[in-house]
Design goal:
With 403 residues, the protein is mainly beta. It has one domain: Porin (Beta Barrel), CATH 2.40.160. It contains one helix and 19 strands. It has an 18-stranded antiparallel barrel. The two termini are 32 Å apart.
């Protein structure tokens, strides 16, 4: 399988309507490198955070005290197996949030995952992944169309895919994904926190034009069922794609085409442009990525379907020429406009940024100071909110070989 084809498959997985459930208090760190066989990695961390909007109320809605200090303990463990043709990864991580003043908000944030990759033959490669998460607030969900509230949510994501090289220059890929999201739904949030499920199928073809460039096409079918909507939504996306290795450090991937929403009881049929662009740089310990996506996705918040546009950027680099000091920063902006004819549906503009400055005195421990910002606005009264968090964390993590 060519390098450009692998880049395409990774990009396709990242650009699906996936749900990511992880509260990032500090940086994620660099991806670890493993030797063959089994490796067990226990993790333990402690963080202290100041949060200026613990309720996630809109501006002007919380006139009394609405800030607090939060102590967080987060244990975790990862199990990795690396064989000649098979790679297996699994892990669990949890965060216990202990509020200094508002102890009624104390709760666990838990996540678990398992992933397998298999190189079956020189031409055939397949893999699968499953993950689950339980989160205390909806601003932790990396998915458009969801209002930010201090409401619990549970998500699950299962996906499987296969890649096959027809010839030295042509390859095919196919994947199927199923995602489910459920909210705690007290009466006051039932109208704008729905939940639901998505079944998605993606097919792709790539033709290697040269050693640095591949051209092809992608087709995506997405069927979404949103709680309280009268019928599912069916979305079809067809795109022409390009993958290009600009240099040994820089890569570019992009696609352009059309997305079509079938008619339902809530909407007339709609067709619009679909775009996705991504550029990456990897050199030594420095990484950079930037991307843009435009398409239709289901709204698990207000219901119906939305036009989703998002821009993301991330950068990580050592500081002052040191291998132990680093900067890790990222940001995502989402613009969601309703497509369906429901009174409840509102446009949402969401921004989240995160910056961490870290020090690794030893390979098994890191200390970080971090700042994160979450903002969202809508047309609803009190629908303009902002949340700032600043703090530090200490994380210990040491891989152990298993015989």
């Amino acid at each position: 399988m060519t390098r450009t084809t692998r880049i395409t498959i990774v990009l396709s997985a990242l650009l699906t309507a996936g749900v990511t459930a992880q509260e990032q208090l500090g940086s994620g760190g660099l991806q670890p490198s493993y030797r063959g066989g089994w490796t067990f990695t226990p993790t333990m961390g402690f963080a202290e955070t100041y949060d200026d909007n613990i309720s996630l109320f809109g501006r002007g809605s919380a006139e009394q005290q609405n800030d607090d200090f939060i102590s967080t303990i987060f244990p975790g463990a990862d199990l990795h197996f690396g064989g000649k043709h098979t790679t297996l990864d699994s892990g669990y991580s949890g965060s216990f949030l202990n509020y200094t003043t508002f102890s009624v908000l104390n709760r666990w944030d838990q996540r678990a995952r398992v992933e397998i990759k298999r190189q079956e033959t020189a031409r055939l490669k397949w893999g699968g992944r499953a993950s689950m998460a339980m989160m205390p607030t909806t601003d932790l969900i990396e998915l458009g169309g969801i209002p930010f509230r201090h409401t619990g949510a549970t998500t699950s994501d299962m996906r499987g895919g296969v890649e096959y090289a027809l010839t030295a220059r042509n390859s095919l890929s196919a994947s199927i994904n199923r995602q489910v999201i459920n909210f705690d739904r007290p009466e006051e949030v039932r109208a704008f926190l729905r939940g639901g499920r998505v079944l998605e199928m993606i097919e792709g073809w790539r033709h290697k034009v040269s050693g640095r460039m591949a051209l092809g096409a992608d087709y995506t079918y997405r069927r979404a069922t949103v709680v309280d909507d009268p019928e599912p939504f069916n979305i079809h996306t067809t795109e022409a794609a390009i993958d290009y290795e600009i240099s040994p450090s820089w890569t570019f991937s992009g696609a352009a085409g059309m997305v079509h929403l079938q008619a339902t009881q809530l909407t007339t049929p709609k067709t619009g442009p679909a775009w996705r662009l991504r550029i990456e740089r990897h050199r030594q310990r420095r990484t950079f990525h930037a991307g843009y996506i435009r398409s239709y996705i289901p709204s698990f918040g207000f219901g119906g379907t939305i036009q989703n546009q998002e821009i993301g950027v991330g950068y990580r680099t050592p500081l002052f020429g040191s291998r132990r000091l680093y900067l890790d920063t990222s940001g995502v902006f989402r613009d969601n406009d309703p497509l369906t004819n429901t009174v409840q549906q509102l446009p949402l503009r969401s921004l989240r940024t995160h910056t961490a400055i870290g020090w690794e005195p030893q390979p098994w421990v890191r200390l970080e100071g971090f700042y994160s910002l979450v903002q969202q606005s809508s047309l609803r009264a009190g629908g303009r909110l902002s949340r700032n968090r600043i703090g530090f964390q200490i994380v210990t993590s040491k891989p152990m070989r298993m015989q």
